[in-house]
Specification:
Helices cover 81% and strands 0% of the residues. The chain contains 4 helices and no strands. The protein is flat.
Length: 103
């Protein structure tokens, strides 16, 4: 899960719309944070997928519908990230409980 203090910067950074001073701050953080780096990667992948679909002519919608589709896709990506993190946390918890039970 992305760090709360950087979460608002991730989407503008992924879209390359973040001001340069904030870019430097976030780049330093991304160098050390796997979760935020993964979030940026998923945001960029979702934007790229949407762009390809729009260019291919498969999504001829109004501008408002396009933005709604982008938001929905981002929510789905975030839910996937959160789900993966929850599965990992549950695995670690169960493993810790098994280690405590065994010894």
């Amino acid at each position: 899960m992305p760090c709360p203090e950087y979460k608002a910067l991730l989407e503008p950074y992924a879209r390359r719309e973040l001001p340069e001073n904030q870019q430097r701050l976030l780049k330093d953080h991304l160098a050390a944070c796997d979760d935020c780096r993964a979030a940026v990667r998923y945001l960029r992948m979702s934007d790229d997928a949407i762009r390809v679909a729009l260019l291919a002519g498969t999504a001829r919608q109004s501008q408002e519908e396009d933005e709604r589709s982008r938001r929905l896709l981002r929510v789905m990506v975030w839910l996937g990230v959160v789900g993966a993190l929850l599965v990992g946390a549950l695995y670690m918890f169960l493993r810790l409980m098994a280690m405590r039970a065994n010894g």
